[in-house]
Amino acid sequence: MDAGAPKPGLRDRKRAETRARIEAAAVELVLSDGLEAATVDAISERADISPRTFFNYFESKDAAVLGVRPKQADEDVMTAQLSNVDELDPVVAVIHVVMATMGITESVEAGLHRRRLEIIRRYPDIVAGQFAQLNARRDRLAGHVSQILARRASRGGETGPDSQAHGAIVLALCASAVRSAVLDWAENAETGEDAPGPGIRDAEVIEQRALALVRTTLRRLA
Prior knowledge:
By secondary structure, the protein is mainly alpha-helical. It has helices at 10-33, 40-47, 51-54, 61-66, 74-84, 90-101, 110-122, 125-136, 138-155, 164-188, 199-221. Helix 5 (74-84) runs antiparallel to helix 6. Residues 39-58 bind DNA.
């Protein structure tokens, strides 16, 4: 944590602990009993919460399994990316938005990353469901992406995008690249106890793979 950042209060810490407990329960249930058996009720029971509380943190069981951020957290993600947009390549900023919205972050504990990797290997269709949730947020996220592009363009003295369509196109390209990168990561990464990649490395691998895919695609279209 940044030394200058305010420490989270008791309420925030308790929410973070509850969220982590739900995620761990969801992942453990899928690995031990299978995806179908890991219902919201079963996850809630293992996490020692009510199903009603579960939906205060996650929109579905798949979201809990993969750590997908709730819709209300999108604004936090965008605020962070907009504050860094002057330093970041705009494509990198958009990839960060997609990854953070989908719960692919550097802060996730390494063991949890590896267990999720095993789930994606066993149930690759869960990734499609994950991105269906991203698609449901498309309009709002596309608006945010348009802001990133416009701010970057204005910094360079250029005319920024004149509609949300530009943001939607860039978002779709970056989201497709992240999806391909996640599936490639799941297929090729090591999962044993001696695997070299902790959680932070996994996120970096996905980001770099997605970025390479976007840049290669743009070069071929030029």
